[in-house]
């Protein structure tokens, strides 16, 4: 996808904007966003950081199921996702990141809502460790906004990992309803 094509799929939003703040723009990522996505993921200090190469591939191969947010032209956040091959109506969210400067403006929630609408997803999945209260809150609120059932179950346990990673709980949300 070229930058011009990415620019063509933009959604301006105003979540939590106060007087004098720049508006938030949500758009499809372009290849040039790979650098800032890697930096945002690194700077959260909570996300599992993938290689910079992985973020470039994500922007190339999964741009249609991912979004980036900008504030005043500066990278403010991203959501990476993909439609599950075995469940093509299910949007699997891989990572959500928001720059610390822009937190508190509901950018993550707006990116998720925008991406669910763009993809036409009927269901949404993600994995979350039980110590990540911010993500648990984000996805619980998403389920409420979309009047959808939320179930959780262990997906990957420490025994599955070579490095002792904490259990990743699968959050299944659906079927999605229009926002209230």
Structure notes:
- This protein has five helices and eight strands, in the order αββααβββαβαββ.
- With 180 residues, it is an alpha+beta fold.
- The protein has a single domain (3-174), classed as Aminopeptidase, CATH 3.40.630.
- Strands 1-2-3-4-5-6-8-7 form an eight-stranded mixed beta sheet.
- The relative contact order is 0.13.
- This is L-2,4-diaminobutyric acid acetyltransferase.
- Residues 24-168 form the N-acetyltransferase domain.
- Its EC number is 2.3.1.178.
How are the SSEs ordered, and which strands pair?
Elements: H1 3-8, E1 10-13, E2 24-27, H2 34-44, H3 52-61, E3 67-71, E4 74-84, E5 87-98, H4 107-119, E6 123-128, H5 133-145, E7 149-156, E8 168-174
Parallel strand pairs: 5-6
Antiparallel strand pairs: 1-2, 2-3, 3-4, 4-5, 6-8, 7-8
Helix pairs in contact: 2-3, 4-5
Pfam families: Acetyltransf_1 (PF00583)
Protein name: L-2,4-diaminobutyric acid acetyltransferase
InterPro entries: Acyl_CoA_acyltransferase (IPR016181), Ectoine_EctA (IPR012772), GNAT_dom (IPR000182)
CATH superfamily: Gcn5-related N-acetyltransferase (GNAT)
User: Can you write the helix and strand succession as a string?
Assistant: HEEHHEEEHEHEE
Domain count: 1
Q: How many β strands by DSSP?
A: 8
CATH class: Alpha Beta
Short description:
The protein is α+β, with helices and mostly antiparallel strands. It is 29% helix and 32% strand.
């Amino acid at each position: 996808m070229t930058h011009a094509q990415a620019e063509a799929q933009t959604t301006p939003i105003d979540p939590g904007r106060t007087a004098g703040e720049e508006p938030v723009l949500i758009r499809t990522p372009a290849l040039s966003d790979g650098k800032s996505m890697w930096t945002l993921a690194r700077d959260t200090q909570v996300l599992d950081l993938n290689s910079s190469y992985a973020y470039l591939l994500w922007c190339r191969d999964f741009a249609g199921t991912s979004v980036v947010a900008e504030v005043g032209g500066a990278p403010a956040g991203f959501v990476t996702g993909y439609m599950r091959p075995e469940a093509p109506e299910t949007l699997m969210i891989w990572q959500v990141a928001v720059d610390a400067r822009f937190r508190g403006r509901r950018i993550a929630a707006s990116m998720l809502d925008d991406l669910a609408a763009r993809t036409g997803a009927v269901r949404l999945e993600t994995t979350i460790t039980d110590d990540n209260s911010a993500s648990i809150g984000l996805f619980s609120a998403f389920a409420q906004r979309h009047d959808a059932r939320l179930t959780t179950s262990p997906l990957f346990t420490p025994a599955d990992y070579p490095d002792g990673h904490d259990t990743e709980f699968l959050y299944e949300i659906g079927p999605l309803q229009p926002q209230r």
